[in-house]
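Good morning,

Attaching, inline, the backbone tokens for the sequence recovery test we're adding to the shared suite. The designed sequence is right after.
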């Protein structure tokens, strides 16, 4: 059952190839495309946060606190989206 070093090396290489993720489709984007997506993701999250905060403030009568809270939540959500997009965690075709 002993294997030669070449056979063992080949099996290790095959196992590593199976484990390593394939390059994400987003990695083929240009630098400008990545920057535009990042800016859009962050801006959209901030806008949604402010709009929800404004709506909560009007509904509950808590004038600045809803906007402030949801602004920070939108900021956090935007950066989470940026992180996921840059690390390839958004890819639905990962297998």
């Amino acid at each position: 059952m002993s294997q030669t070093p070449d056979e063992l090396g080949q099996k290790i290489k095959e196992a590593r190839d199976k484990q390593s993720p394939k390059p994400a489709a987003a990695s083929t984007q240009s630098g400008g495309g990545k920057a535009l997506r990042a800016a859009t993701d962050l801006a959209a999250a901030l806008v949604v946060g402010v709009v929800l905060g404004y709506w909560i403030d009007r509904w509950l009568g808590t004038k600045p606190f809803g906007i402030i809270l949801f602004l920070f939540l939108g900021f956090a959500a935007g950066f989470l989206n940026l992180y996921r997009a840059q690390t390839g965690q958004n890819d639905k075709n990962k297998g």
